[in-house]
Amino acid sequence: MQVHRVEDNKNDVKSGSSKGVYNHPGNIYFRSLVNAQKTAYTLPTASSKDKKKIISDIITNIEGLNPPGRFLMVDGITEMSHKEISIKTGQALRVKNKVKEEKQ
């Protein structure tokens, strides 16, 4: 497997769970794309083909930005493989949104 080391840009989607990763502009945009497609992805009538198309469309959208967005590993400099990107995107589509309860 070939490893590509890169400098991150505003459109990159970073892996990890830190506050910096969560607030990175590329991750915010990725979540907005995912949230817009969650209902369609999780429909009981959604076929495997439909789900693959939704995943592909999200990835294509990120990679088509200017500058192109990339999906980076936890180290922040190594690009993920296409398989890893597809798994990450599919997982994001399956995760339920966390709702913060307000104290009254």
Blueprint of the fold:
Elements: E1 13-14, H1 19-22, H2 25-42, H3 48-63, E2 71-72, H4 82-94
Parallel strand pairs: 1-2
Helix pairs in contact: 2-3, 2-4, 3-4
- Structural domain tally: 1
Instruction: Kindly state the percentage of residues in helix.
Output: 40-55%
Task: Please give the largest β-sheet.
Answer: 2 strands, parallel
How many helical elements? 4
The stretches of 5 or more residues where confidence is low (pLDDT under 50) are 100-104
Radius of gyration, in Å, reads 15 Å
Key words describing this protein structure:
104 residues; mainly alpha; two-stranded parallel ribbon
Report on this structure.
- With 104 residues, the chain is mostly helical.
- The protein contains four helices and two strands.
- It has one domain (13-94).
- The protein has a two-stranded parallel ribbon with strand order 1-2.
- Helix 2 (25-42) runs antiparallel to helix 3 (48-63) and helix 2 (25-42) crosses helix 4 (82-94).
- The termini are far apart.
- Mean pLDDT is 89; it is low at 100-104.
Compose a concise summary of this entry.
The chain has 4 helices and 2 strands, in the order E-H-H-H-E-H. By secondary structure, it is mainly alpha-helical.
